[in-house]
Amino acid sequence: MTLSSDHLPSSACQPDRAILRQRLTAAGLRATTQRILILESLMVLPGHPTAEQVHRQVVLAEPTVSLGTVYKTLDSFVAAGLSKRVASAEGPCRRYDSDCNAHHHLYCIDTKEIIDYSNPELDALIRDFFATHGLGNFQPHSFSLHVAGSRIS
């Protein structure tokens, strides 16, 4: 079992921009300055930032980048597989995850924190359940649980 808190700073250092250019190019996107800054911000901000949080980070380096550009770029990252959109109980607020590895999310309704959760045993249970019970005429390819609750002190 692995838990990773939304409020802890990223363990990764500042990403190398040459590597970010390669990731964008490999995903079929042009490596523009704006895209590099947005991807870098998504990776260095703790947890699962909103587009607004990414925008606040990006404009520190490039004040002309609009919030609309950040939204469109983050959506293009999701479409290209560079990030994932994360459900939250905050209504229409979209949050993003730069970790595209298979994992689940625990949502604390008190702190609004999203905690990454990985557990191979849980994944095996879910795969076995759907292999046995199925979903009618639907074949799942991937899954991610979103569990809402409260931290226990």
From TrEMBL:
InterPro entries per the UniProt record, alphabetical: FUR (IPR002481), Fur_C (IPR043135), WH-like_DNA-bd_sf (IPR036388), WH_DNA-bd_sf (IPR036390)
Signal peptide region: none
Lineage top rank: taxon: Bacteria
Keyword Ribosomal protein appears in the UniProt entry: no
Sorted UniProt keywords: DNA-binding, Repressor, Transcription, Transcription regulation, Zinc
Gene3D superfamilies: 3.30.1490.190, Winged helix-like DNA-binding domain superfamily/Winged helix DNA-binding domain
Family to which the UniProt record says this protein belongs: Belongs to the Fur family.
Annotated protein name in UniProt: Transcriptional repressor
The organism of origin for this protein: Hymenobacter lucidus
